[in-house]
């Protein structure tokens, strides 16, 4: 690398200074950008694995109008997914719940803090756990900084567990007594004929 020497008699360039209040904006913008890049990587990985799973039916010809419209990204939230995409996402979520969430945050099960081993059959539980997992992925990444995990605990984990394990939460009708296990998904209001 060549080193530049100032021209004799010319003033030395001023160092670039960024006000401290602008640094916070730059850091948060960079964190948001890095989170988006990571999410795009997840989407690309999913699309790549889906393409590998699909059978090839001979040579394909490009769609002449395909480049005219921007491709829509697959949904990130599990409730917007269906079929094999939902099943694959649920399997990944289940691994996270089984190997990370429950061993570290499961606590004892009781009537005031219920849990259902068949949580994946409770739509509300799936939705809340998936949202919690998405937040965990974002806030435990290096781009989230040192306070990311603390933010995840405070803003996401504590509230989600309070809702899931409330005595009137989605597992309220399930019992986990080894002598009398019971599992029942609560009926939604629209299924009771209360929906308008």
Q: Can you put this structure into words, describing what you see?
A:
The chain has 196 residues and is mainly alpha-helical. It has a domain at 90-104 and 111-185. The chain is built from four helices and no strands. The protein has helices at 20-53, 83-105, 123-139, 148-164. The longest helix has 34 residues, at 20-53. The radius of gyration is 25 Å and the shape is elongated. 12% of the residues are buried.
Please specify the SSE layout and strand pairing:
Layout: H1 20-53, H2 83-105, H3 123-139, H4 148-164
Helix pairs in contact: 2-3, 3-4
The coarse overall form would be elongated
How many helices? 4
Mean pLDDT over all positions: 75
Low-confidence blocks of residues: 56-70
Number of strands: 0
Helix content: 40-55%
The major beta sheet can be summarized as: none
Please indicate the percent range of residues in DSSP E strands (runs of 2 or more).
under 5%
Class from helix and strand fractions: mainly alpha
Question: How far apart, in Å, are the first and last alpha carbons?
Answer: 73 Å
Oligomer: single chain
Q: Could you give the order of the helices and strands?
A: HHHH
Q: Give the C-alpha Rg.
A: 25 Å
